């Protein structure tokens, strides 16, 4: 796992990348130390390729260590991150989900499209409206079962 930090006063943005696995523990400890004086931390997951069970455990432990007295936000959550939040609620912890990606597919043309959804644009406990296929004009469907993929929005 690699990461990049951007500080703006007491606000920090952490962009995570690569694979979150058993090797993530040391970088996450470094991030935790660097967040000591921050009041707000936003994690960007756009460059995360995958997460395994040991990476989930390391991330949950990390998140628990930084949550007290700090606002936490997640942005550009990729499908692997969404699936982990849905299966293991402690992966999200107290974080506010700011945005996430949804993979859509056209049942007619099989064309795929990845859409970034800004959570603030959705009414509470509401799934986003699927786009229409740019080729056929028909509504697209999520690659995953909607009820399962969007479960984190319903909590």
User: Major sheet: size, sense and barrel closure?
Assistant: 5 strands, mixed
β content, as a range?
25-35%
Shape, per Cα inertia axes = elongated
Structure summary, number of beta strands? 8
Percent range of helical residues: 10-25%
Number of continuous helical runs: 4
* Element-by-element helix/strand order: EEHEHEHEEEEH
Structural class: alpha/beta
Strand order of the largest sheet: 1-2-3-4-5
Separation, N- and C-terminal Cα atoms: 29 Å
Low-confidence residue ranges: none
Mean pLDDT: 95
Can you put this structure into words, describing what you see?
By secondary structure, the protein is an alpha/beta fold. 24% of the residues lie in helices and 34% in strands. The protein contains 4 helices and 8 strands. The chain has helices at residues 25-34, 53-66, 79-87, 146-149; strands spanning 2-8, 11-20, 40-51, 71-75, 96-97, 99-105, 112-118, 141-142. It has a 5-stranded mixed beta sheet with strand order 1-2-3-4-5. The chain has a 3-stranded antiparallel beta sheet with strand order 7-6-8, with no helix packed on it. A hairpin with a 2-residue loop joins β1 (2-8) and β2. α1 (25-34) runs parallel beside α2. The longest helix has 14 residues, at 53-66. The radius of gyration is 16 Å and the shape is elongated.
């Amino acid at each position: 796992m690699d990461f990049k930090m951007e500080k703006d006063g007491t606000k920090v943005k952490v962009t995570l990348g690569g694979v979150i696995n058993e090797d993530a523990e040391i970088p996450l400890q470094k991030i935790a130390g660097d967040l000591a004086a921050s009041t707000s931390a936003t994690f960007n997951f756009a460059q995360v390729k995958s997460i395994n069970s040991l990476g989930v455990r390391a991330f949950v432990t990390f998140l628990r260590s930084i949550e007290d007295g700090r606002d936490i936000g997640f942005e550009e959550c990729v499908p692997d991150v969404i699936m982990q939040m849905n299966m293991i609620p402690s992966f999200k912890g107290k974080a506010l989900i700011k945005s996430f990606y949804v993979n859509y597919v056209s049942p007619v043309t099989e064309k795929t499209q990845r859409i970034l959804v800004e959570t603030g644009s959705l009414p509470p406990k509401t799934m986003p409206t699927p786009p229409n296929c740019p080729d056929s004009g028909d509504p697209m469907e999520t690659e995953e079962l909607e009820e399962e993929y969007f479960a984190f929005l319903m909590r």
